[in-house]
Fold MxaJ protein.
Amino acid sequence: MQGRSLGHVAMALVMLAAQGTAAAADTNEPVPTLRACAADDDMPFTNAASQGFEDRLAAELAAALGMKLERVGFADPRYMVRDGIDQGRCDVMLGADAGDPRLLTGRPYYAANYVFLSRAQDRLALQDWDSPALASARLGVIPGTPAETMLTQIGRHADSFNYMMSLGGHKAMRNRFVRYDVEKLVRDLAAGRIDVAVAWAPAVARYVRDSPVPLAAVPVPDARKSNGEPVLFRYETAIGVKKGNEALLERIEAAAARYRPRFDQVLAEQGLPALGGRLAAIPAQTTAAAAERSTTQ
């Protein structure tokens, strides 16, 4: 009897030790890594020091997935899909255009217009590209955007060209990436160097928020060229992954109820809703699925 009891005790100790070893092994398992493509100099979105709002969104996404974030930087963001996503160097790209044919994209997490910006004190009546104020105002737009297209349509491209080029240090876009200084655009508007700026709301929201001079913003409606071709000014933004990687995208979408409230907080802190940006609602089925998982765990 006594020997059998001692044997049971010994067996129990062995089992406890085994469980402890297994628990330690589980604890020491490496945390999976989420590799995010990001531009090294594209504020306010991203930079090499991870100070952009998309850098923050990437960190929130990784946390919601229980993964460690690894930033994969690109000096020339034009090639992030080709050399990053397609080559397997990174797993996700924040700030992708919803429906980008090069990527597999999820549900948009925000939608935003370009905006007409002016000094609030000037009380300019800006509604669309036919607004009379645009005929004589000093205009500032970012080259290569739909706003530049419309400058040509209203006959203001030539006299706005020099200022446009100053935003990129007078560098030509040909065969190289040129970073255009959207912070300078807002700063020059506040200082009275230009009268109206036209830019995508997420690019300027932070700087409008921090401007020492109150600025007024009006969403730019979609327009048409003289030949009837549409010029779009509202875009939806989503998370993109490599085509064919449905498993990762499904995992990201399933975690939406965990990361989307944090996304919305980051975007609100940027000032995006104040410029008419719409924070897309979390789909009801995603929220319900998350609630069901939490009750079964």
